[in-house]
Design goal:
Blueprint: H1 5-11, H2 15-28, E1 32-35, E2 50-54, E3 57-63, H3 72-83, E4 89-91, H4 94-104
């Protein structure tokens, strides 16, 4: 039996599980979600895990589980994206994504 994203979130403890749950939530709410390949994209060190698009909105999402922290190249990319007008959402839960999406709609 397939679990809903809410059930997945309650049990998410790994990066992969949390990433899948966030992708499922975003897709169910109408976002087109591009997942950055594991190991990154050549020439774009630190690119966020997810690039989400909806209604002319662009939401870069860096997924972090447990005690994970942003790596130096991720911080640099986040600064670059913010300077371009696209703040990176650091998501440690679905709640972070829901809040980030809702804050962006105002």
């Amino acid at each position: 039996m397939r679990r809903t994203w809410q059930q997945q979130v309650q049990r998410s403890s790994t990066h992969a599980e949390l990433l899948r749950a966030i992708v499922q939530y975003l897709e169910l709410t109408g976002w087109l979600v591009l997942v950055t390949p594991r190991g990154g994209v050549p020439g774009l060190a630190g690119l966020p895990d997810l690039l989400a698009l909806k209604d002319e909105r662009f939401l870069p999402v860096e997924v972090k589980a447990g005690y994970d922290k942003l790596r130096p190249e991720q911080v640099i990319m986040a600064v670059r994206l913010e300077a371009a007008g696209f703040p990176v959402l650091e998501a440690r839960s679905i709640d972070d994504v829901v809040k980030g999406v809702n804050d962006g709609e105002r």
